[in-house]
Write a structure and sequence with these properties.
Radius of gyration: 19 Å
Mean pLDDT: 93
Number of strands: 9
Distance between the termini: 28 Å
Order of helices and strands: EHEHEHEHEHEEHHEHE
Largest sheet: 7 strands, parallel
Low-confidence stretches: none
Structural class: alpha/beta
Strand content: 15-25%
């Protein structure tokens, strides 16, 4: 089967929360497709620095990195100015930075609610607004990394789920308001994805359990998300706008855990 190679040559991409986990794999994938990459980090400067070197060595693209709190409007503006100076104006924005705490809804501290909502929802708004101002004359793509919990509730994550539900609607609003500027906005919502950060939690719950719960029979990996991002960012997806793409192996649709999962007997 003929496979078209995604070409993002001469495109400039900014990935928030790009120094680790899903974000770092997104940076690798975009760079492998020829895009110049700006890696945003919040605290982990060493990871960002190492990743930047890796991308330059392996893909021969322009790479820059810098720290910024995406929920701070001043820092966001400075981040885009730094990116423009070091690699050029943004063509592809991936709002990947996110955070969560796990608390019963009656025990969520005010500051935890504010922090989660600010990073997961206000951050993408601030970054999208700044990106759209730079993209105004040439168009571009904004990709918001959401979660299946923008639709599926989960105990202990009322603030997280609410922020992701808000991000889903923000994506749709941006898509109609920015369409006349040739800016596409898409929400990508992963399910259970194994990263270095959640590896221990998955082991504690039991990978075998997830493999039974997920109809496709496996936990997702960071490449599943990154490959989707590069496709959506490319001209191959030029008519995909304002939609939500769920990467979960049909996990969202598997709500009946006592389903016998009968397999078809082939004759």
């Amino acid at each position: 089967m003929f496979k078209t190679k995604i070409d993002l040559t001469k495109k400039n991409a900014l990935v928030t929360g790009g120094s680790q986990g899903i974000g770092s794999e997104i940076c690798r994938e975009l760079a492998s497709c020829g895009a110049n990459v700006y890696i945003n980090y919040y605290q982990n400067k060493e990871n960002a620095k190492a990743l930047a070197k890796e991308l330059v060595d392996n893909f021969l693209v322009k790479v820059a990195f810098g720290g910024a709190n995406v929920a701070n409007a001043v820092e966001v503006k400075e981040m885009f100015m730094k990116m423009e100076k070091e690699i050029g104006k943004v063509d592809i924005l991936v709002n990947n930075a996110g955070c969560e705490t796990i608390n019963h809804v009656l025990e969520i501290k005010n500051e935890d609610w504010d922090n989660v909502v600010n990073v997961n929802l206000k951050g993408p708004f601030l970054c999208s607004r700044e990106a759209a101002l730079q993209m105004d004359s040439k168009g571009g793509v904004i990709i918001n990394i959401s979660s299946i919990h923008d639709t599926v509730p989960r105990k202990g994550l009322a603030h997280y789920c609410s922020s992701k539900a808000g991000l889903k609607m923000l994506s749709k609003c941006l898509s109609i308001e920015l369409a006349d500027k040739n800016i596409r906005v898409v929400s990508i919502a992963p399910g259970v994805i194994e990263t270095t950060m959640n590896h221990k939690e998955l082991e504690m719950i039991g990978k075998s359990s997830f493999n039974q719960w997920i109809p496709q029979g496996r936990i997702g990996n960071v490449s599943d998300v990154a490959n989707t991002v590069s496709f959506v960012a490319s001209d191959l997806a030029s008519y995909i706008n304002g939609t939500d793409i769920y990467i979960d192996g049909s996990y969202m649709n598997s709500t009946i855990q006592y389903d016998p999962r009968l397999k078809r007997i082939r004759k």
